[in-house]
Amino acid sequence: MERLSQRRTDPVTGQRYHTTFRPAPTPEIQARLRQNPRDQEENIEKHLETYYRNVKDLEDFYEDAFYVNADQDPYVVFEFIESCIIKPLPCRK
């Protein structure tokens, strides 16, 4: 929720910022930042509810899919995906 709800965009330059992880460099830029309506907490909650309502059906439908922890170094994520495609790990049935 924090990662999504605190995203902001500078309408002048198109640069994207995050109020915690990548704040705007100057007060002038910070004053003109705008939040996309999709990034408001109530909209994010709606999307999450939809996701959790449908995730089991999707997992059942895509039974050959694999879980990727993308909260890692991009190289590690790439290596994992590549290993699943080239030499798939045995999966539970």
From TrEMBL:
The keyword Nucleus does not apply. It comes from the Eukaryota. Keywords: Kinase, Transferase. SUPFAM superfamilies: Microbial and mitochondrial ADK, insert 'zinc finger' domain, P-loop containing nucleoside triphosphate hydrolases. One of its GO terms (molecular function) is AMP kinase activity. Transmembrane segments: none annotated. Residues 1-10 have a biased composition (Basic and acidic residues). Residues 1-23 are annotated as: Disordered. InterPro entries: ADK_active_lid_dom_sf, P-loop_NTPase. Belongs to the adenylate kinase family. This is KAD8 kinase. It comes from Piprites chloris (Wing-barred manakin). The lineage of its organism: Eukaryota, Metazoa, Chordata, Craniata, Vertebrata. The gene is Ak8.
